Amino acid sequence: MGRFALLLLLAFASFQALCFAADDDTAFYDSFDEPFDGRWIVSDKDDYKGVWKHSKSEGHDDYGLLVSEKARKYAIVNELNEPVSLKDGSTVLQYETRFQNGLECGGAYLKYLRPQEAGWKAKLFDNESPYSIMFGPDKCGATNKVHFILKHKNPKSGEYVEHHLKYPPSVPSDKLTHVYTAILKPDNEVRILIDGEEKKKANFLSADDFEPPLIPAKTIPDPDDKKPEDWDERAKIPDPNAVKPDDWDEDAPMEIEDEEAVKPEGWLDDEPEEIDDPEATKPEDWDDEEDGEWEAPKIDNPKCETAPGCGEWKRPMKMNPAYKGKWSAPLIDNPNYKGIWKPQEIPNPDYFELDKPDFEPIAAVGIEIWTMQDGILFDNILIAKNDKVAESYRETTWKPKFEVEKEKQKAEDESTDSDGLSGVQKKVFDVLYKVADIPFLSEYKLQILDLIEKAEKQPNITIGVIVSILVIILTVLFRLLFGGKKQPKVEKNPEVAETSNNQSTSGEKAEEEEEEEEEEKEGTAAAPRRRRRDT
């Protein structure tokens, strides 16, 4: 009995130690179980008219911070009790967001503010408030990405520069709760997770991972260097000694009549291609004085349907074998060619070396967005110094909600279409979004995302969109294998409707309006009720 009591005591002590460690590693956490008033301060700036609400997540008893109105700017901030250093060990930024009404145009990212200037107040929070990191989903028009932006101070110039993560992951395209995690490691690595799954790994000091790179180039083009006036960049020039041949006829037409052509047997020279409709009758209310002399509408001449043709026969045209077009001298190597001119390189006055990023501490967490969508819910915002703490929150706060929502979505998909077609298309779109994230397709990511969005709005063109994306992939692979220089052309399905595709910028987005699909005109118009003869 004494041994059991001792084991129980040790287990309890271990549990307490784990809890205290978790508390020590949690720098900031807000579950929004209680109303946010007092902790979060809404901006007093005139631009921000959007109303924040403390609201339940649809289908749950769990509360969050809700974007309640469409087409509004929102700004709200929570000042931390103490700034969180990003230089000591690992730092984890994590939060949940749910697009309860979907997301066509809007952002749901967080700004982790650095210490503000003296006199700054939370009610003054706006898009100009300096931040250390901006992180989270953003989607509008051609933009579809999970941002990770680091604002880093150049020690030489003193200027803060935005460094954007290259090839960020795409935003999940559903109405479920998703958890976004950014893990900053002491070895200069940053990992981006969505729902606990790693979507991107990058190095802060790598020029391949951030644009512009944190470490500037050692040299830059000399801004004062000018191209000499006699610098010749033409690799080829017309041969000055070339002479147009005597037999070159520049006036010869491209096409001529085919003299060997013979009129087909049975051609009806005296029959018109169209005749008056014999069944048409003059309307009873037709007024010759007001409407003019009535004429029967025209129809195709039925006699021409079985004949090779009707009306005057003319010889068809054929390519002129003597056609040569405008003569121009052949090109030869330019003896004065000096290559493409570039300014000389000079030492970059803003260059510096760096072993680790000089992170600014996080003094506040803010949400500053312009969205065309309502129903965006933020929840469980966490800053921790241990990724195990973030993992624990994902398992206990996010995963149960997500599983419930996923099962509900599955049931809705099955009820929407008894054949399960809606669910199949959703899986196809999920795969296509993953395809868009493939690094070697990065040059065409926006093009691919645009096609996917068209298919989501018009499911009947899904097959055509898949074909178009395959054309892009195969063309890129061909270029990689054979070194071709042609740009891939997206094969447009004739049923794909044109959509507005304006580029949006972070924090400021215009509503994307979908163009209505044009109705096809009927091939055979009904006989006109009236026809006026020109007099």
Automatic annotation (TrEMBL):
PROSITE patterns cross-referenced by the UniProt entry: CALRETICULIN_1, CALRETICULIN_2, CALRETICULIN_REPEAT
Gene Ontology biological process: ERAD pathway; protein folding
Nucleotide-binding in keyword set: no
Record's compositionally biased regions (Basic and acidic residues): 221-237
Signal sequence region: 1-21
Pfam families: Calreticulin
Cysteine pairs bridged by disulfides in the record: C105-C140
Location(s) in or outside the cell: Endoplasmic reticulum membrane
Record bears the keyword Signal: yes
GO CC annotations, alphabetized: endoplasmic reticulum membrane
InterPro entries: Calret/calnex, Calret/calnex_CS, Calreticulin/calnexin_P_dom_sf, ConA-like_dom_sf
Region: Disordered, residue numbers: 204-301, 489-535
Residue intervals passing through the bilayer: 461-482
GO molecular function, one term: carbohydrate binding
Xref: PANTHER family: CALNEXIN 14D-RELATED, CALRETICULIN AND CALNEXIN
Function field: Calcium-binding protein that interacts with newly synthesized monoglucosylated glycoproteins in the endoplasmic reticulum. It may act in assisting protein assembly and/or in the retention within the ER of unassembled protein subunits. It seems to play a major role in the quality control apparatus of the ER by the retention of incorrectly folded proteins.
Family: Belongs to the calreticulin family.
Name of the protein: Calnexin homolog
Organism: Gossypium trilobum
